[in-house]
Amino acid sequence: MTDLSTQALPGQAAAGTPATQVAGVGDFIQLMKPRVMSLVVFTGLVGMLVAPGYLHPLLAGVAILCIAVGAGASGAINMWYDRDIDAVMRRTLQRPIVAGRVQPEEALTFGVALALGSVVIMALAVNFAAAALLALTIAFYVFVYTMWLKRRTPQNIVIGGAAGAFPPMIGWAAVTGDVGLLPVLLFAIIFFWTPPHFWALALYRSGDYERAGVPMLPNVAGPKETQRQILLYTLVLLPVTLAPWFLGLLGPVYGVTALALDLLFVLGAVRLIRQSTDRNAMRLFGFSILYLFLMFAMVLVDRGLAAI
Length: 308
Fold this sequence. Notes:
This protein is an all-alpha fold. The chain contains 15 helices and no strands. The protein has two domains: about 170 residues, UbiA prenyltransferase (Tetracycline Repressor, domain 2, Orthogonal Bundle), CATH 1.10.357.140; about 130 residues, Four Helix Bundle (Hemerythrin (Met), subunit A), CATH 1.20.120.
């Protein structure tokens, strides 16, 4: 494990950066990890739109806002807790707490307020089932992934990835008040997609994780084993993503597209094994984002065509 005692302390600015600056609105938005939030919101919206029943557009907007704010709360609390390791990782040096633009206590207060507000509003305006799932999502990301798993096991992203898989279930529950088979399968798609997605990035950023002492798979098991695990998970995704088609929950438009995307994902993993380069790792990481977006977009397209 890397000794962090000689590095920037929690809440301190990176070297050469003023210890205290004036926080702007953009800094608090950055605390919420907007890029991560965008996928969370999109998958939650898909769960809502394919759910049977009707939800008033105003309440639907409130539900999506709560999902977004809940995701942002998780990101803010994560940055508060991880400010020590963020200070020694190149890709996180400019995060608001590390750079000294937001104080740690401000970030924690902001995150907790967002978490409580999003859950309470979801419960009062939409329903308690959706609120309970949102609360579970936030708690899982903060306590299970961030505080328990991330610094203790290379399986951190495997188990912790469940937090990012809940939004389709939350969106579905916002409409129906319960959870059906399709949102569970959508949960499974995100759950099994997360490890190869994140490990591709971890291969490229393994030096960062080594300096921070975070036991990511490439640093613990090595690049070759990580590449093998990425291929294994892309293969597991094949039956998982095709299950909604096989079970008659979605039609052939989704099924054929899902199969094509799966094969491209597998081919990308094979190419990474054959040519183990940073470029191929980042190409696979970039494709994985497109993969998830297209997979969920086709859920909407397929359901829309079925309704015509």
